[in-house]
Fold:
Amino acid sequence: MNLRRWLFVGLLLLVSSSCKNKEHLVAAPKFAKLEATPNPLVFGDVGAGLTRLMRVRISNTGDLAVDLKIPSIEASDPEIFWLPAQEYPSRLDLGEDAEITVAFSPKADGATSAALHLLDLEGAKLVTVRLEGNGGGPYLAFDPPSLDFGRQPARSETRRSVSLENVSNPTGIVLLDYEIDGENADAFSVTPVGLPSEIGLEDLQLEIVFHSIREGEMSANLVVHTSSPEQPVLRLPLHGEGMPPVNCQVTIDPAEVRFGIVDSEVLSQRDIRLVNKGASGCPLWGLQFQGPDKSLFSLADQPPDNFVIAPSESLVLTVGLKAPGRDGAVQAGLSFGLGNGDTPRREVLLYAQLVAGLDPYLDPITLEFEPTPIDRLTVGMAAVRLRRSGTVNMVGAGWGNPTSEAFDFGRSSNYDGVIRADRPYAIPVIFEPKTLGLHTGTVEFLIEGFAEPLRMTIVGHGIAPCGDGPCQWPKAECSPDGEVVAGRQTAVVSTNAGAETCQWSVAVGDRTSRMSDTDPSSCQASFVPWIVGDYLLDHMIVGESGRGHRCRIPVHADPPKGIWIEARDQAEWFTPLLTLLHSDGGDPDDRDSWINYSQTCSAQGMFLQDCSWDDTQGDPSGVFATNMYGVTLMGIRDPSVSHPYFVGMSGHGTPLEPRALRSRIYCAGRLVNDEDVNFKNGTEFQVIGKLEMTSATTCQFTRDDARWSLDF
Structure:
C-alpha cells in the first residue's frame, strides 16, 4: 500500500471535516441577464425621407429563463426610430437568443439617437440598446465594410461574399466596373458579374476569392466604379494570411461508400467520418462532388471553407442521394483537401444502385409535424407500404443517429411484422418538444432481406408554450380514483379540454405495472400496481387532428391490509417459489405439509392477466398468488387471527455461486421483514419466519431461527 497516498487522503478528509464544521455553504443567487449585439446599433448615413432596416440580436446569458414584454423605443420623435411589424420574442430560455428588427427613417440631415428597451413582465429593464443614425450622407455601402479571410492553407482558394448595398435606395445607380489594386493584388480576384449591374432595392452580391499563393499576410483593395455622382468610387479592404505547410494525419472511414440498393424516390444518407490523429489542427478545404453523377449527391451539413479539425476530434460528413425516377447504377466521388495546398486531394468514392418505386416504400418520405407548443405534443404516423402483391417481413423500427430527444415512439398495435399491399407497417411517432426551435431525426425501418434500413426523416418545430391563454391543443389532468394498493385495480380519472378522442395511454413504472387501454368515449383508464412502491402514471390523450397532451403524476402503491409477500430474483431468469403453511394445516417441520399457491393467476408477456387482489379467482382460502419474470407475489386477503402462518421459499445455489433472493413481507399494512434469503447448498427449501395476526390491524413477525437452516 502507498502509505504517503493514504496519509494525504486522510489529511484531506480531516481538513474537509474541519471546514464543514466552520462554514455554511450558501447557494449562489440566480439572475436574469440579457445582452445585445451589436450595442450600440449604428445605422450610419441614411438620406432624409428614406428608411434603413437593421437587426439586433438579444441573448439570454443569465441564470434564469425570461418572459418579456413587447420591446419599446424611447425617442424624441417616434417616427425616426421605430419597430416594423414582426414576431417579437415573448420568452428566452437559458442560452437562447432572438433577433429584433429596428427601422431608421430620418426626416432631415444631422445625427440623432434613441434607445431600445426590453423589460420583463414585472416591468424591470433587462437591457437597453442605444440606436444611432445620421440623416444624409452616402447612398452606397459595403456589408461587411472589409473582408478578412483569416489564416488559410498555402496554395488553396477561399471564397467570401460581400454585399454592395443601396442604403438609401435612390434609383438609377449602377455598377460600371471593378478591379483589385494594392501590393498583393495577385492574391485576390472577383468572380465575374455582368456589367453594368443595377444597385437597387436588392443588394448586389460580389464573390471575392483569396488565393493563398504564398506564406504570410497579404492585403489589397476591391475598387468599384459606380454611376453615383456623390460616390463614383468605393473601396473594400481585403486581407488574408497564407499558413505554413501542415502535415495532417487524418483517417477517413469508410474509404468508399456503398449505398446498396436504394429507392431513388427516397433521400438515402450515409456518413463519412474524418478523425484527426495528429498533434495539430488540420484544415479541410475545397469540398466538392465530382464524377458522372455528381449532381445526384448532396451534403446535409457542409462545413465552412477551411474548417479546422482539432487534434483527437472528428468531423462527420453526411452524404445524401436522391434522384426521382432514376434507375440503374450511379457513381461519383467526394473530393476535398486536407492541410496545405501541396498535399494531394483526397477522394471518397460513392456507389449506389437506384430502383425507381422500390418496394417496400416509406409513407411519408419525410414526416413533418406542425409547430407544437413545448407543453403539448403532436402524434404522426410513420409507415412502410407495398405497391405490389406478396409479403415482406419487418424486423423492427428504431432511431437513426442523431435524433432529437423530442421524438418518441407510441404504442403500435399487436402486429406480427408482415407487410402486404393492404396491410402496412405503421407506428405512431410522438413529437413532444422541450425546447424552442428546430428538432430533427430519423426513423429507421429494418426489413428482412435488406442490407440497409429504410430511413424516414422527421422534422418538428417547438414553439412558445400555451400558458393560461387560449390554446387549440387539448390538456389532460388525471389522478387515481381512491387509494392505490398493490394488487388492486385502480381507475384513473381524467378530465380534459379540447380532446376529440382519447387514443391510448400507458403506465410507466416498475416492470410489473400495467395500464389498460382507454375508452375513447370517456378517456378513462385503469392500472394495477403489482408490487409495493413508486410509479409514474403517464396518461396521454390525442385528438383526431393528432394534437395531444400528457399528464404525468407520481403515485405510491401501499401494501394491502392483510398479508402481502413479495419475492424477487434480481437476475430475472429464476422465479422464486413461495409457499405458505397455516398452523392447523400440518407440521412446519414436514415439507409435504406446505402448500404452493404460486399459480393462482397467469402471466402473459410482461403483464398479469385476469387477476387482482380483489379477485382471488374463486380460491376458497382467500389466497392471491402469481409469479412472472423473477417476481413471485402472494397475498392473504383475510388472514386468521387464531392461527399463525409460516412463510417458506425455495431456491438453489452453490458455495461458489450462492443465490440471494429478496424477500419482503407486509402485514397489516406495514413492512415487517425485508432481507436477502441466501441459497448455497443446491436446491433448498428455507423457512423465512412466522406471522401472527394478534388482531385485524396488528401483526407480529418472528424470524424462525430454529428452522432457518433446516434442509428438508
About this structure: The helical segments are 3-22, 705-708. Confidence is low (pLDDT under 50) at residues 1-26, 504-517, 602-610, 706-712. The two ends are 47 Å apart (CA to CA). The chain has two helices and 57 strands.
